[in-house]
Amino acid sequence: MNSIIDKQDRKLALSHILVGYFAFLIGTFCGLLQVFIRNDAIELPNWLDYYQILTAHGVLLALVFTTFFIFGFLISGMSKTLGTFGPKTRGFSWIGFYLMVIGTTMTTVTIISGQASVLYTFYAPLQASGWFYVGLALVIVGSWVLGFSLIGHYIVWKKAHKKQLSPLFAFMTVATIILWVIACLGIVVAALFQFIPWAFGWVETINVELSRSLFWYFGHPLVYFWLLPAYMAWYVVVPKIIGGKVFSDALARLSFVLFILFSIPVGFHHQLTEPGIESFWKFLQVVLTFMVIIPSLMTAFSLFATFEITGRKKGGRGLFGWFTKLPWRDVRFTSIFIAMAFFIPGGAGGIINASFQMNEVIHNTMWVVGHFHITVGTPVAMTFMGITFWLIPHLTGRKLTKSIKKLAFIQIITWAIGMLLMSTSQHILGLLGAPRRTSYTGYNGNNVALEWFDGILSNHVTMAIGGSILFLSAMLLIYIVVITCVASPKATTEAELVEFPIAESDPGATPRFLENWWIWIGICFALIAIAYTIPIMDMIQHAPPGSTGFQTW
Length: 553
Ligand code: HAS
Known about the structure:
The protein contains 17 helices and no strands. By secondary structure, it is an all-alpha fold. The protein is globular and about 65 Å long. The protein starts with 6 loop residues before the first helix and ends in a 12-residue tail after the last helix. Residues 121, 223, 226-227, 269-270, 289, 292-293, 296-297, 299-300, 303-304, 340-341, 343-344, 347, 350-351, 353-354, 359, 363, 368, 371-372, 375-376, 380 line the site of heme-as.
C-alpha cells in the first residue's frame, strides 16, 4: 500500500474533485435562487426561468458533482491500495475525464442558453436540444472509460496476487463500477435510440413510457452509485479514523454484492402511479426494492458494531459508554457520523416511498424532495465533505491546519442545521399536498395552497431559511476547498503529510467466491430479465402513437 499516492495519480484525482466542486458551486447557487423563487421573494430576469435553474441544480449537483467527486475518490483509493497506476490506466483515465468535461460543458451550455429546461430526469415529451442528450451521453461514456481503466488496474493487481482477495477498497470500487456500467445501459439505449434521434428531428415521436422506464432502470441504481462510495468511506476509512478496524470483511463485501444484484431491477418504484405498467410488475419490483434495503441495514449493523467494539476497547463502560469514547473532536469522523445519522430518516423515508399505498400520498410532492435531500444531499454529500477535509490536503501535500479544522466543524454543523430545517419543511409540505417541480404559485388564492405559506414561520419560509443556511455552508466549504488546495502550508516532513486512512480488514474468513464477479453479473442480469423483459416488451409491442416534443418554457 502506498504511504503517499504517486504525484501523477494525485493530479488525476484532484482534477476530478475540483471539477466536481466547480459544479457544486454553481448548483448550490441555483438551489438558493429556488427557495426564494418558491417564496415569491425574487423576480428573475426574463431570460432566466425557474425550470432552467432547477434543471441546472439537479444536473450539476446530482449528476456532475457526484460523478466527478466519486471518481476522484476512487482513483485516489485505488492508487493508494493497489499501487501507482500504469501509463495505460492513467492515459485512459485522462481520456475519460476529458470526455466527461466536454459532455458536462455541452449539457450546461444547452441549459444556460434556455434549450434544456427539462429537469435532471429529462422526462419526455419535454424536449431539449439534441446536444443536451449528446452531452449527457458523453458524460456516461467518459465515466465508463474511467471505470474500465480502474478495473484494468485491478486486473493487473490480481494477476500479480493470484489466489489473494483484493484489498477491500478495491473490491468495493469494482462492485461500484459493475453496478454503474450495467445501470447505465438503460440510459444509453434511451439516449441513443430514443432521445437523440427524436430531438434532432430524425424521428417524429417518442415512446414516452418506454423512455421513462429506461430512465428509472438507470435512475434508482444511480442513487447507489452515489451511496456506495460513501459506504466505502463508512466501511474502510471511518474505522481507521476512530482507531478500530473493519467489523467484518465478509459482511462488507457481501453488502456490496447485494447492491449489484438488487439495486437495478427496482426502477418501477419510481413509476408506481404511472399507467401503462401492469400492477404485477410494479409489485414485483417493490418486493425487489425491499431486498435492496437489506445491504443498507447490514451496513447500519456493521457500523454500530464497529463503533461499540472500538469504543469499548478505549474503556467505554456500561450500555452506551462506548459512544463517548468516539473521537468527536475529529471533524473527519464527526462529519461522516452526522451523515450516517441523517440516513436513518432518509432511508426510512425511502421505505415509505416504496410502499405502494403510501407512494400514492407522496409521489410528485415536496416529500420526495425532502427525501432526497436527506439521502443524496446529506448522507452522500456530507460524507464527500468529510472526505474532502483530508483528501485534498493529502493530494496537494499540504497540511490540514487547526483553522481549517475549526472552519470544517462550522461548515458541517451549519449544513446539518440547514438541511434539517429545509428537508423537514419539505416533507411536511409534501404531506400537505404541495407538488414538487413547480415554481411559486398560489393557485388563484386556493386556501389549501395558501396554507403552505401560512404564518411567519410557514413551511415555505422555513425551507427558505434552511436553504439560505445551506448556501452559506456551501460557500464556506468552497473556501475550505480553495485554501486546502492552494494556500495551506506545505507539509515539510513525512509526519506532517495528511494520511489517506485505510482500516485493517481481515479477509481470513471471507469466502473466495465473493470475488467471482461473473456469478454476480450473471444473477444481476437474470433478475433484470425477470423484472423487465415482459413489461418492456409490452411497452414496445403495444406502444401508443408516441409523442412529439414539447418545450413549455
Ligand atoms: Fe430514494 C425517490 C425509495 C434510498 C435518492 N430517492 C428518490 C429520488 C432521489 C432518491 C434523488 O420507492 C427522487 C428521484 C426523482 O427525482 O424523482 N430510496 C428508496 C428506498 C431506498 C432509497 C427504498 N434514495 C435512496 C438513496 C438515495 C436516494 C440512498 C440517494 C443517495 N426513493 C425511493 C422511492 C422513490 C425515491 C420509491 C420515488 C418516490 C416517488 O414516488 O417519486 C433505500 O435504499 C433506503 C434503505 C436505507 C435504510 C436506512 C439504513 C440506515 C443506515 C445508516 C445507519 C447509520 C449509522 C450511524 C449506523 C433503511 C445505513 C450511526 C447513527 C446513529 C444515529 C447512531
